[in-house]
Design brief:
Blueprint: H1 2-10, H2 21-29, H3 32-35, H4 43-50, H5 55-59, H6 69-74, H7 78-84, H8 87-93, H9 98-109, H10 116-132
């Protein structure tokens, strides 16, 4: 519970292991062939999950989750982003050249290109500077 709350507070992705002693004892008693079959790990968990969901969900490749950041920056986060990507705001940081950032921002807004993650990096930095100041250590 503590790891879960702390990681959510700081936006971290964590994995809390299954620590039920009965599961650990059972797993230690199994052969490698039972736990890893055909070069595929988590065989027991996949088979168990296969009882409840389609096989495509248990045997597919790993996939990440990308939030719809491009749409958010053009929509609900646009005003927030615009304030931080304003030429004067960027110049005040003392770290960033506003011209290329403004060019990328305008391309993104026009749908000429998707610069969501590049812009998010700048937005995160500018927001960090707003909170902690340029001399934060």
């Amino acid at each position: 519970m503590k790891v879960d709350r702390a990681s959510m507070h700081w936006g971290l992705e964590t994995r809390v292991p299954l620590l039920d002693p009965r599961i650990v004892e059972w797993a230690w008693a199994q052969s490698q062939e039972v736990l890893v079959a055909g070069g595929q790990g988590k065989v027991v968990l996949r088979r168990l999950l296969g009882r409840y969901v389609p096989e495509a969900l248990t045997n597919g490749p790993k996939r990440g989750f990308d939030p719809p950041l491009a749409a958010w920056l053009r929509g609900p986060l646009r005003a927030w982003a615009q304030e931080r990507l304003d030429t004067e705001c960027l110049a005040r940081t003392g770290w960033l050249d506003p011209a290329p950032i403004q060019a990328v921002w305008k391309q993104h807004l026009r749908h000429d290109a998707n610069h969501d993650y590049r812009l998010w990096t700048v937005l995160s930095f500018v927001t960090w500077l707003e909170r902690w100041g340029p001399d934060a250590r």
